[in-house]
From TrEMBL:
KW DNA-binding (keyword) present: yes
Molecular function per GO: DNA binding; DNA-binding transcription factor activity
A Pfam family annotated for this UniProt entry: MerR_1
Native organism taxonomy: Bacteria, Pseudomonadati, Pseudomonadota, Alphaproteobacteria, Acetobacterales
Coiled-coil region(s): 79-123
HTH merR-type domain location: 1-71
InterPro entries (UniProt xref): DNA-bd_dom_put_sf, MerR-type_HTH_dom, MerR_fam
The name this protein goes by in its record: MerR family DNA-binding transcriptional regulator
Organism: Siccirubricoccus deserti
Domain of life where this protein originates: Bacteria
Keywords per UniProt: Coiled coil, DNA-binding
Length: 129
């Protein structure tokens, strides 16, 4: 593994676009150093970016991700960070479970609508023939 990465190397390694990395940089979630006009990312930047990408996959907002990363910078013992992570993870779990219940209800209703429509079509075809 490298000690330093360009934006393109990091993008290729992590399977994201260079544009996505520049977006997270513009949002202040990562702060690479510059070597002339080239962004130079170190292992710390790579680790932060991995946390950002994982957090986005889990559905956290950029503001929540920033709060989490800021706590890490402020509290090296990571107790505050882990406490926040636990609270946010539980909140996200509750949101997803509610979405699942809502989705299950919507699917059940759609199945009922489809069943009723199929029966109506079958009844009309039976009266025609």
């Amino acid at each position: 593994m490298h000690d330093f990465f360009t934006v393109n190397q990091l993008a290729e390694e992590l399977g994201v676009t260079a544009r996505a990395i520049r977006f997270y940089e513009a949002k202040g979630l990562i702060a690479p150093r510059r070597a002339g006009t080239t962004r130079v990312f170190d292992r710390h930047d790579r680790g932060r970016l991995l946390l950002v990408l994982r957090s986005k996959r889990l559905g956290f907002s950029l503001a929540e991700i920033r709060e989490y990363l800021d706590l890490y910078d402020a509290d090296r013992s990571q107790l505050s960070q882990v406490g926040l992570l636990l609270a946010k993870a539980r909140q996200r779990i509750a949101e997803l479970e509610q979405q699942r219940r809502d989705l299950d209800q919507t699917l059940a209703e759609l199945h009922e609508v489809a069943r009723e429509a199929a029966e109506a079509l079958a009844a009309r075809e039976a009266t025609r023939g």
